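re: the backbone from monday

yeah here it is again, tokenized this time
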């Protein structure tokens, strides 16, 4: 007795709509398993003004509210939109400051022995000022000290670049010297060519009388 084996290609295919539904069901199952495994994680529940369908639970599937309550929530969101924007901007300022402090420490390490003690002290002082500003949680102060530290790092970087360029130029100039002349030997100078004081060669010559030809 033999048994027929069905390959993947032999399996009946779902319609596109059913494939989407199956994928959504798998995602829901995965999310529920994640929430059960991690108590600190919670799923967000959307708000809707439509009436609940059969089997839907308020607060689990949706928050079912009236249109009047929905309009009130929108008005509150618009009222605090400016405050939310300000908080986001302050958070971005703090993130930029932390990132620049990391860059400053890395720059000091990478350029150790390549920059002067004065430059290192400037980076250290500007970094310390920025850390104090972060502790104060004053957004304007943090931004000002961030700009100050960024300026110090830019100046140090410019100085290092100029120093490297000068070193490269000096190295290239030190290897240059007078090149050989054509033919492998030294040719006559301009004065020698004009005065005729170059090498001489002896030769016999004969004067011919044109009338006796």
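seq for it, each position gets an aa:
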């Amino acid at each position: 007795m033999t048994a027929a084996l069905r390959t993947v290609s032999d399996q009946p295919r779902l319609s596109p709509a059913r494939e989407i539904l199956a994928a959504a069901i798998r995602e829901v199952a995965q999310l529920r398993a994640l929430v059960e495994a991690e108590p600190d994680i919670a799923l967000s529940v959307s708000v809707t003004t439509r009436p609940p369908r059969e089997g839907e639970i308020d607060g689990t599937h949706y928050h079912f509210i009236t249109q009047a309550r929905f309009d009130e929530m929108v008005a509150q969101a618009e009222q605090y939109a400016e405050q939310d924007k300000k908080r986001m901007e302050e958070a971005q300022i703090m993130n930029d400051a932390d990132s620049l402090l990391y860059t400053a420490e890395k720059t000091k390490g990478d350029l150790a022995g390549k920059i002067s003690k004065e430059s290192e002290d400037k980076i250290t002082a500007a970094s310390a000022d920025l850390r104090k500003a972060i502790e104060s949680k004053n957004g304007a102060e943090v931004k000002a000290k961030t700009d100050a530290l960024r300026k110090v790092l830019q100046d140090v970087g410019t100085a290092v670049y100029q120093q490297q360029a000068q070193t490269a130029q000096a190295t290239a100039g030190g290897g240059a010297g007078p090149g050989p002349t054509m033919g492998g030997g030294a040719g006559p100078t301009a004065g020698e060519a004009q005065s005729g004081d170059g090498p001489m060669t002896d030769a016999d010559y004969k004067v011919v009388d044109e009338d006796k030809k």
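The beta strands are 47-48, 63-64. Residues 1-9, 179-185, 190-195 have pLDDT under 50 and may be disordered.
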